[in-house]
Write the structure tokens for this entry.
Amino acid sequence: MAIVNEAITDQGGGDYRHIMLTVPANKSYAITNILVCNNGSTTAQFDIHIVPQGNATDNFVTRVINNLELPAGETFTFDNEKIVLDQGDKLRFQSEPEYVGPSINAGSFVVGKEYTIVSAGSTDFIALGAADNNPSTIFTATGAGVGSGTARLSRYTVLSATVSYLEV
């Protein structure tokens, strides 16, 4: 059995549509369960979409969970359905609210994570992948950074999800 664990992030468009799983070529997956955990201190909402290969996400066609409210600290389990995804099919989440966490000091940025600059200080954020050194600029870290600048994780929600599946 394979397991995928991820934080639900905004992959563009500002609506926190996150592709959790895409079935690779010549494969089929049987989803055995989906766990969604609210790691925040307030209620969060999410949708789950099962999107067939070549189709777009559509609230009237692909949505299987609609605006489910998940209280802080709670976990939702989706394990009663029998879902088989074929090549190119996607399991997609849409959620809110955005996670606004504490500032992180330069030197502690994780390569590949998206951040929003809070204060440039003496940090060269351009060298870390940002378009400029201005507060509110969103960038994907290319290094840990040095100096006195700070940033916050960007485009994350308070939700994380785990998908378990079997290859069939």
